[in-house]
Amino acid sequence: MGNDRLSTDHLLGIKYLTAEDIQLIFETSDNFKEVINRPIKKVPSLRDVTVANLFFEDSTRTRISFELAEKRLSADVINFSASSSSVKKGETLLDTVNNILSMKVDMVVMRHPAPGAHHYLSKHISANIINAGDGTHEHPTQALLDAFSMREKFGDLAGKKVAILGDILHSRVALSNIFCLQKLGAEVAVCGPPTLIPKFIHKLGVKVSHNTRETLEWCDVANILRIQMERQDIKYFPSLREYARYFGVNRQLLDSLNSEVVIMHPGPINRGVEITSDVADSDQSIILQQVENGVAIRMAVLYLLAARRS
């Protein structure tokens, strides 16, 4: 493999990327970040490429970020929102995709509630597949943009201590972040109520804590995840007030620490629950940089996967 090509035809998960792949995506993103900040923000890199965005679950921010990335690269874009379409009439995943492929689609960006849906697709169709989130499994571009944002802040991530706080159990961001950060040489800890930490997680080589203060004293970066109410079919903690009290990150807590922690959040934020506004909007927070970097990272992934087609 040359240094300018990814080792894979798809982005199914961070698990399947090498550390070299991740560095290549970051270097390509650096270039695209310059493009985004120019007066004319478009480049013709994907002029003859058709990308289908298939969202079987709602996600306004990820979908808009991908769509913007595709349009900045001059791709032809087809948007397909499955929550309001034929999937409700019983059409299978493969039917849907075959119909879309008959439109001669080159790349598919898909979010799907079933873990492994992207793997299944990659075996059955010739388009490049990008996983925009599969159930509570992986969300690779979010992990890439998170790590890229940390790299902007620190330079190298080797030896950095990163804590992921909150609803680890229902989060696809957590798993992708753990894989990505470990490949870049960072140490990772997870912190949250025992009911929201998966039982197997320590096997991934991460520290596990249920004490927010101790975790924040340990880490350089705190990536705070939202409480995913929509995935919680049973009660995992007594009340949001109780959660905010023991596991929320507020100004008073941050000011009482020995060192300054960088604050991140993949969004959307439940303000006043896992994080207060005076933390989310503070100088310590790089939440807005994460959003901006999302477009550059997604441009890089689309561009590098398209290069595998030629």
Feature tags:
310 residues; Rossmann fold; 5-stranded parallel β-sheet; 4-stranded parallel β-sheet; 11 helices; 9 strands
The first-level CATH class name of the largest domain:
Alpha Beta
Q: Would you tell me which CATH topology of the largest domain applies?
A: Rossmann fold
Order of helices and strands: HEHEHEHEHEHEEHEHHEHH
What is the rounded distance between the termini? 15 Å
Question: What's the Cα radius of gyration?
Answer: 19 Å
Structural class: alpha/beta
Strand content: 5-15%
The number of helical runs is: 11
Regions with little confidence, pLDDT below 50 for 5+ residues: none
How many E-type strands?
A: 9
Looking across the biggest beta sheet, what order are the strands in?
Answer: 7-6-5-8-9
Give the structure's gist in a few sentences.
The protein is 39% helix and 15% strand. With 310 residues, the protein is an alpha/beta fold.
Give the secondary structure arrangement, pairings included.
Blueprint: H1 19-36, E1 50-55, H2 60-72, E2 76-81, H3 93-101, E3 107-112, H4 117-124, E4 128-134, H5 140-154, E5 161-165, H6 172-183, E6 187-191, E7 207-209, H7 212-218, E8 221-224, H8 240-247, H9 251-255, E9 262-264, H10 277-280, H11 287-309
Report on this model:
With 310 residues, the chain is of the alpha/beta class. The protein folds into 2 domains: 14-139 and 291-309, Rossmann fold (3-Layer(aba) Sandwich), CATH 3.40.50; 141-288, Aspartate/ornithine carbamoyltransferase (Rossmann fold, 3-Layer(aba) Sandwich). The chain contains 11 helices and 9 strands. It has helices at residues 19-36, 60-72, 93-101, 117-124, 140-154, 172-183, 212-218, 240-247, 251-255, 277-280, 287-309; strands at 50-55, 76-81, 107-112, 128-134, 161-165, 187-191, 207-209, 221-224, 262-264. It has a 5-stranded parallel β-sheet with strand order 7-6-5-8-9, with helices on both faces. A 4-stranded parallel β-sheet has the order 2-1-3-4, with helices on both faces. Helix 1 crosses helix 11 (287-309), helix 2 crosses helix 11 and helix 5 crosses helix 6 (172-183). The two termini are 15 Å apart.
